[in-house]
Specification:
The chain is an alpha+beta fold. It has helices spanning 2-18, 71-74, 81-84; strands at 21-23, 35-47, 51-56, 65-70, 89-99, 102-106, 113-115. It has one domain (21-115): Nucleic acid-binding proteins (OB fold (Dihydrolipoamide Acetyltransferase, E2P)). The chain is 22% helix and 41% strand. It has a five-stranded mixed β-barrel. Strand 5 (89-99) and strand 6 (102-106) form a beta hairpin.
Length: 116
């Protein structure tokens, strides 16, 4: 019975992981509050005192979406995220939110970002 329960749990987890919605960065506004995966190029980055900003789909201020990494989460990355992803095509998974009219995904774990 324990093996069956574990198998069902693993299958449900695999189904959830595969059922991520892959969207274009330009469509992020339609998915605010939803967990999505977005793949695009990193155009600009900026490391500030308390956060790192990674802009996808265009350079600031014409970015399509911004990834926000808070200072307390930066230590989880093998190197500084601003330089680590600059110029790469990446895929990020997370919940789309809005800040001052701009779309963003707050990244709390390096596993949310995959370099393509």
């Amino acid at each position: 019975m324990k093996k069956l329960s574990l198998l069902i749990l693993l299958m449900a987890t695999a189904f959830y992981a595969k059922s991520q919605t892959l969207i274009l960065a330009k469509d992020a506004a339609d998915y605010v509050g939803k967990n999505v995966t977005i793949c695009d190029s990193v155009y600009t980055t900026k490391a500030l005192d308390k956060i790192t900003l990674i802009n996808l789909g265009g350079a600031f201020p014409k970015e399509l979406i911004t990834l926000v990494i808070n200072k307390e989460d930066q230590a989880k990355f093998p190197s500084e995220p601003a330089s680590m992803f600059m110029g790469n095509k990446i895929c990020v998974t997370g919940i789309v939110t809005e800040f001052k009219g701009k779309k963003q995904i707050v990244v709390t774990d390096p596993k949310q970002i995959v370099v393509k």
